[in-house]
Amino acid sequence: MQTVANFDRIGEENAFAVLARAGALAAQGMDVINLGIGQPDFPTPENIVEAAVKALRDGQHGYTPATGIPQLREAVSADLHRRFQAEVNPDQVLIVPGGKVTMFTAILMFGEPGAEILYPDPGFPIYRSMIEYTGATPVPIPIREENGFAFSAEETLGLITDKTRLVIVNSPANPCGGVTPKAEIDALVAGLPEHVAIMSDEIYDQMLYDGEEHVTLLGYPEIRNRLILLNGWSKTYAMTGWRLGYSVWPENLYDKARKLAVNAWSCVNAPAQFAALEALTGPQDAVGQMLAEFDARRGLVVDLMNALPGVSCITPKGAFYAFPNVTETGWKAKELASALLEETGVATIGGPDFGVLGEGYIRLSYANSAENIQRAAERMRGFLTKS
């Protein structure tokens, strides 16, 4: 049986393969410490859970508008104004079942054979996977350790051609934890040609440290007519399994995105939307508490990684990932990540799973307890010492 060729171009996110393998090893009796998957280890705050339960009990069991319930779109708009003074029309907010849906929609909208789309490398693997699926040419934006794992505006602008349709940026960034300075974002916006759209993945916008402040691309009115914003609830509110995200679209693209929603998923789970509404409008104490814990773990994981033989690790400024350099261990990154899991029960992700420039690095998520991070580092030390 012959399938359509573009399905053969679909990649995947190897973090889920590692998660499955870690689960299989645990089922066999191995004590596995998972520093691979990018999800908070905290439960969803109780007030958010109760809002979903109440919605179910109140009879919210049916379809909602494809774009999301109006009160949630209004809450997103109000939240963006509260945090960034950004003016966002609720009628340009689209509620979607997870952040990946915004990537898929934007890349599908601009990608086709002959087009070029720029994306971060190392970066979230679904960017490149979906670009290749559309037949467009993926053009990597180098994300370099010597640049603090931030993108360079000059380097990014130098990659743009007359075939470029879309540029994808991500700050704070997965997998490296880099935060791009405002000066670089200013320069990128100033130099972005009129024919190029931009998608800004800001899913980690509240996860910054050391006094860093998030610079949203919503703050640049000169590109609002071609800016797609990606955000959601998964990371900030520990809601990965709820599958909730939102996007902000230019007026001229919004109806195209709405039509895809109608064709592909109809609408987002109704009670989950009421949970998301409570997340934005209810108490925010849990967000600060989770961030403080992530910050403490960040310092711990950096210190522990820098104490390992052959490993160096710069301090991430955002998200909940460290991206230690393992070049001096003598191991290739993916082989090291695999050996650590199979032989020590420590799950990490090899850097090449995030792009060609990820070789020489592994990703560790510090969305795990300090105790488990300490135990994982001890196992890694034992492994690297004997190998």
From TrEMBL:
<dbReference type="Pfam" id="PF00155">
    <property type="entry name" value="Aminotran_1_2"/>
</dbReference>
<dbReference type="InterPro" id="IPR015422">
    <property type="entry name" value="PyrdxlP-dep_Trfase_small"/>
</dbReference>
<dbReference type="GO" id="GO:0006520">
    <property type="term" value="P:amino acid metabolic process"/>
</dbReference>
<dbReference type="GO" id="GO:0030170">
    <property type="term" value="F:pyridoxal phosphate binding"/>
</dbReference>
<dbReference type="GO" id="GO:0004069">
    <property type="term" value="F:L-aspartate:2-oxoglutarate aminotransferase activity"/>
</dbReference>
<keyword id="KW-0663">Pyridoxal phosphate</keyword>
<dbReference type="InterPro" id="IPR004839">
    <property type="entry name" value="Aminotransferase_I/II_large"/>
</dbReference>
<keyword id="KW-0032">Aminotransferase</keyword>
<protein>
    <recommendedName>
        <fullName>aspartate transaminase</fullName>
        <ecNumber>2.6.1.1</ecNumber>
    </recommendedName>
</protein>
<keyword id="KW-0808">Transferase</keyword>
<feature type="domain" description="Aminotransferase class I/classII large">
    <location>
        <begin position="31"/>
        <end position="379"/>
    </location>
</feature>
<dbReference type="InterPro" id="IPR050596">
    <property type="entry name" value="AspAT/PAT-like"/>
</dbReference>
<comment type="similarity">
    <text>Belongs to the class-I pyridoxal-phosphate-dependent aminotransferase family.</text>
</comment>
<dbReference type="InterPro" id="IPR015421">
    <property type="entry name" value="PyrdxlP-dep_Trfase_major"/>
</dbReference>
<dbReference type="InterPro" id="IPR015424">
    <property type="entry name" value="PyrdxlP-dep_Trfase"/>
</dbReference>
